[in-house]
Amino acid sequence: MPTASTTHQRIRWAIISFILVASVFMTLAGIYALKISPTLYFESKVITLREDIAITQIDDLKIDETAFWKLPVFFTPTEERAWWFTQRQIDRVLKEKDQVVITFMDQRGVTWQIIADVRHLTLGEIVKRLGLVHLVWLIYLVSAITIFKRHPTTPGYISAFFLASSALYLTSLTPVVHRPIFMDYFWLSILIKVFFVASTGQISMVHFAMIFPKRKKVIEENGWIIWLFYCYSLGISLLYLLEFISLKTTLPLLVFWVIVMLSGLAHSMIKDPDIFMRKQMRMTFFALLLVSVYFVISMLVLWHIEENMLLNIALFSLILPFSLILSLDNQQLYQDRIAVEVNSRKEKERIHRELHDTVLNDLASIAIVTEGALRFIHQDPKLVNNRLFQIKEYTADSSRQLRNFLWVIDDRQSTWDDVVDSLRRLGYDLLNYQDISFEIEINGDHAQISSPSPAIKHAIFQIFREALINITKHSQAKHVLASITYGRNVVVIVISDDGVGFDINEVKDTSYGLLNIKNRVEEIHGELVVKSSRGQGSQIIVQFPLK
Questions:
Q1: pTM (2 decimals)?
Q2: DSSP states of 398-453
Q3: Which residue has the higher pLDDT, 296 or 157?
């Protein structure tokens, strides 16, 4: 059954996939729209607009200069509706005839007419017009998928969402801006509406600025603010689709959100206590600053006949996907480094604790026993002999403990074969002198899993040791069988004996040995199962994951 996090990730992937599929569809739609749109030719050359020459009339249809703007960048819905009405009239005129009379006028007021052929662009001409921007679009798509797969975190998802919506924005806008003069009315309407909706998805960068590299305090205390961003995006899209607002109405709000985004990034760049994070934030901040300023300035300039503007924006904005990928990669590397340092510190603390609780205690006992032996060396030879035997046992046990620690921290013995050899020696040392036979079996292939860390090595050894000591003390077993099974990123250890067994409910909370095993298993985020019943032997099963 999928967990909540898995379900959440699937929903995220579904959203990204939907945007990517929509982007591919709009790419094909844009190419198709240019292919079927009426295009004016004169002497086998496509007629395009120039700054110093205006088209004032097509046959009997009089037209003002705003009709040839690439986008309806008006401040009022009334002006935009008039623009769309003109586009519909031009579309109807051009679709009804094979030739039309075009009237031109230059800046001095001189007019002249030509007879233009109404034809269609070839596929080669379309590719020439759209190819470079579509290459940028493809880079955005690949970057979105790359980020989503490599960084399954909220900042990673937001970055992927931003890049995917930017790809949809580019591919919808490109055929509109790069059309010669006209476009099929239906597809022009679809492409501009999709372009507008996709552009509102870029509000996700404000969300990104509020949580990267760490969540801002205002977001932690007021989580509803995040919903405000996307409610704005949805609301502004609906208002435009319902024709309550015009395209350029949103420009002041666009500037406002750019300021909010840059302020959030600047705050992280200045206030973050970690100097490394401040340095890596600079790259993201300046990349977004440059692209945002360039984009806002371009929006302030009316998109009259400037086709290169979109191409310049697309090429310039290529710094965004790469800067986002590098920022997320750097943060991940930094977090991994911090995790290694934390684990190293924990490992040192654990070794210090283990040495204190075992070897140092044994040395203290040796000192006490030695002092007692010296006191009675001439009075009670038998007592001295017992004390010397105790010293021997303490010394042997201390030597074993030190060997174990040296084995744990020895990088030259860090394979699963080394672990198995160590456990085999331990089993023979603890069981054979008590006439208990011991076998160890290996199942699966460890070549496909990661090598054991020092913490894993130590925990396995101590679990194994504690289980075998319990067997020697309580089980009256004649045979012990241990098995190690390697799965996919998981290891299962089973220790079975044929002893007298025990009632699990009676000893579950009182057995010091089982409690130690349980604690060791929890340290490596594993699972422990103990099976036993009176007269049926016992079995300890330990399963733990490998990262």
A1: 0.69
A2: HHHHHHHHHHHH-GGG-SHHHHHHHHHHHHHHHHGGGT-EEEEEEES-GGGSPPPP
A3: 157
